[in-house]
Amino acid sequence: MDPTQISHLALDIGGTLIKLVYFSANGDYSEESRNGCSVVKGRLCFAKFETRKIDDCLEFIRFNILHHSGVQQPNGEGHDKLYVKTVPREAFTYLDGQKKFVEIDHNDLYPYLLVNIGSGVSMIKVDGDGKYERISGTSLGGGTFLGLGKLLTKCKSFDELLELSHHGNNRVIDMLVGDIYGGTDYSKIGLSSTAIASSFGKAISDGKELEDYQPEDVARSLLRMISNNIGQIAYLNALRFGLKRIFFGGFFIRGLEYTMDTISVAVHFWSRGEAKAMFLRHEGFLGALGAFTSYNDQSHNDLKPHHHTVQRAILNCSGHNFRHIPVTSNLNESETIECSINLV
Amino acid sequence: MDPTQISHLALDIGGTLIKLVYFSANGDYSEESRNGCSVVKGRLCFAKFETRKIDDCLEFIRFNILHHSGVQQPNGEGHDKLYVKTVPREAFTYLDGQKKFVEIDHNDLYPYLLVNIGSGVSMIKVDGDGKYERISGTSLGGGTFLGLGKLLTKCKSFDELLELSHHGNNRVIDMLVGDIYGGTDYSKIGLSSTAIASSFGKAISDGKELEDYQPEDVARSLLRMISNNIGQIAYLNALRFGLKRIFFGGFFIRGLEYTMDTISVAVHFWSRGEAKAMFLRHEGFLGALGAFTSYNDQSHNDLKPHHHTVQRAILNCSGHNFRHIPVTSNLNESETIECSINLV
């Protein structure tokens, strides 16, 4: 990739990961022009680095001359105002193994709750374009899953831990309602026998040590514990403010079916079917995309942490001003998507 | 203790512990009589067994002939209706190391939220005498604390784990807001630099193994994670139903200052000072006391699990019908309190 073609850098520095979004023009500058806008074609690129290795990230930026930002017109004048287009089939629900894309009426989008699951979890009430407030959060997030997971299973990475959890059985360590009430449902209070009464509760009395458990079972219990808890707290906050939609994003999810399923079931269970969890295909880069799309926003001139910009990606991906970007797969690191930028 | 003097047995069989309350008359039968009631003097006794060792409990009951229940009058006629008296200074708040007893106006007691922290957590909305509903709960309870604690620290018992946590420092493993934002408070969204951003989040990137951490630091992080989470979910549920008071009970608490402090801080933080956590001196035996005081209640003829009776102890300890039982210390296993029973 020719560094001179790279511009428009946005960073989201989190507790665990630095997410980086940048635009790389492909040289087809001003090939198109309509509605008084010049159009630059290129690709939107994504990269991530561990926050503790921030020097690698800075080196990457230096090497690619990303810090010389701004799209240059051939005449050398800079343009700062840009729009990224809407992404079709961005939001979906996930239940019983079925992914279902949700068509959102933009006139009926607000208010919604955005739950960003990073190392910790932030919950942001979004009332309109640029109108948002961090109303809640929880310290039990992706960092807890990976942190506890590493200590308990000796896994080295998030992916490894998730892969493990996929093959585990949480009933080995979790104490179920049926374990207490003798295997029968306890419908009077709405609890089935397979509901988890106490996460890791069986470890109390099994007389087993850590080594006696299969790491995959431990990973599975951990994933269910964290996902369930986030789903419950999100629902309670949505209820509190009368929010109909809950969007879940952040690197914890990463399009993983079991994670999404657990969160969906939690929201379904606690809301008695009245609320639905929705997921986003660009989850991991929400903050960076948000920063990217609010590039020329005056209010972003002073340094702000990622929480403030997290919700803008959705806003911008679903607003009226945007065209479709063709996206063929979920976004992950090292992936790029074709993209046009309108210069106005 | 003379087995023939023992009567009125009540059991609360939970996921981890069986709690047992029974009355032992001291032979001063009918020494007093007023308001048409005979009064039996004696002691209220408490015992607990591990649920997995239920045979020990049954043996204890058989040995003490507790299953021959009902207070016998000298003429051999049985009395079934009994009242236990109110307990003074039962409820208290705990904040900044200060225990403060709360005088509750019985005309302004309801509705309240009762949070029973056993292996799992049940949250019960109590609207009046006998009017209650299980509205929520969480699987992250005492069983999670001890279960995960055992796996992570090789502790053998709850007491040992709590003692450990007392000497630990959660900042070693928890990722704090200050760790992400460079040590400064982030007051815009109401987060201080010492707030926990991600429980166990530092374990992600420390490059340490479980053995490299001090068990006391792990125990402390675990205790804060669970206590915080319960406080938050309890507050959100209280808010949902407009409940002013939140009582916390169950064996998880056991009068432990740090636990109560963490729960109090969580409720204070999430409610922005508007709600207060309250604790009870008889926390561990709430369910068993409830069953005990509803001894002759027709609705209790069929077997019911402990959740249904949990709230009755408070009701009965604070209702109009009761006199004071002198209680000099917190109730724990093997402790007894002097008690009189009115036979009507």
UniProtKB/TrEMBL annotation, chains A, B:
* EC number, as in UniProt: 2.7.1.33
Taxonomically, the superkingdom here is Eukaryota
UniProt keyword terms in alphabetical order = ATP-binding, Coenzyme A biosynthesis, Kinase, Nucleotide-binding, Transferase
- Alphabetical list of SUPFAM superfamilies matching this protein: Actin-like ATPase domain
The answer to whether UniProt assigns keyword Transferase to this entry is yes
Q: Which GO terms describe its molecular function?
A: ATP binding; pantothenate kinase activity
The pathway noted for it is: Cofactor biosynthesis; coenzyme A biosynthesis; CoA from (R)-pantothenate: step 1/5
Enzyme superclass (EC):
transferase
What reaction does this catalyse?
A: (R)-pantothenate + ATP = (R)-4'-phosphopantothenate + ADP + H(+)
In terms of InterPro entries, this protein maps to:
ATPase_NBD, Type_II_PanK
Offer one example of a GO biological process linked to this entry: coenzyme A biosynthetic process
- Alphabetized Pfam families for the sequence: Fumble (PF03630)
Q: Which PANTHER family match?
A: PANTOTHENATE KINASE, PANTOTHENATE KINASE 1
Protein name in UniProt: pantothenate kinase
Give the species.
Arabidopsis thaliana (Mouse-ear cress)
